[in-house]
Amino acid sequence: MRILFVIFLIIHGLIHLLGFIKAFGIAEIKDLTQLISKPLGLLWLLTTLLFLGTSLLFAVKYDNYWTIGFLAIVISQALIFYFWKDAKFGTLPNAIIAIICIIGFGEFSFKNMVRNEVDHLVKLANENISDILTEQKIAYLPCAVQKWLKCSGMINRHEIKSVYLKQKALVKMSPEQVQWKSAVAEQYFTTQSPSFVWTLRSKIFPLVEVVERDKFQDGKGEMLIKILSIFPVSEYKNNEKINIVTIQRYLAEIVWFPSAVISPYIKWESINDSSAKATITYKGITSSGIFFFDHSGCFKKFSAMRFMSGEEDAQLKEWIIEVKETEVRNGIKIPTKMTATWKLDTGDWTWLLLEIMDVSYDML
Description:
The protein is α+β, with helices and mostly antiparallel strands. 34% of the residues lie in helices and 37% in strands. It has helices at 2-23, 38-59, 65-82, 84-87, 91-126, 143-152, 240-252, and strands at 132-133, 157-158, 162-171, 181-190, 195-205, 208-217, 220-227, 231-237, 266-272, 275-282, 285-293, 299-307, 316-329, 332-344, 347-361. A 13-stranded antiparallel beta sheet has the order 8-7-6-5-4-3-15-14-13-12-11-10-9. It has a two-stranded antiparallel ribbon with strand order 1-2. Strand 6 and strand 7 form a beta hairpin. It is elongated and about 90 Å long. The two termini are 34 Å apart.
């Protein structure tokens, strides 16, 4: 579709060149019956160049292509109104291009919002001093958690202060959905204060992309879903339930940066040799969950009672994260394939199949 739109822009732009040709008498244009002055002919030429510039920027995926596109549309439509008799059919192509530029503006705004939020995380990460995680530092933890840290390879390594993850996923947005939808995601964490920013992109239809951004920063949670980066589908922001939902998610995902288990905002309680309960508390927000481990100490499952959304009437349901595959990445053994499941009265709803494509530590 990108190539087709580039071709469309080029053709539409070159059509504007006819006004310049007629104005300067370069050739006879019979379809243009109205007189065109040379100054207006130069405007037709400028519009051609702007549309060609837009096509080039769009082709190379430059985020701000829409700025040139909007300028081209404004000048083009003004000329069309002035020469309505001959040029009125150019209004429809301009409308199509305007829609694409609006989508481009929405995409730019969404990316800029995420960029600013990640910059805030970078500032937090740079304020953190990374120490070595030793056996002495973890001696107070439940035996199952100590065994997990040893199994993960975190002992005698620097404590992780920031994380970047690239993920691919299959999602089902409702229990009734039959087919999985593919998605890609990126996520950033810092550990000095429990914070993350996560973005996901998924096509619900061939030309319709849904973007989602979840975050927990400064003790406040947010969830935002938009179609085409413009139209909000749902948004939950800094209410009690969404704050709990997002801090609980952070707790579950420390399995990708195990040294966070000794963070002062996480308290541990032993259950047995293969499980332990963790409670996270930060800026008045508290949540908990149970971590389960196999006989070798590797993390296998996380279970918690969790609100299914940030709505006021959201109900608590059991939420389970299960590990399907574990790998060593950057010297640390972490889960790389996982599923997320809601335990509903009507049966299990496994809504996410997640795979870690890339992970880096302390690179923010």
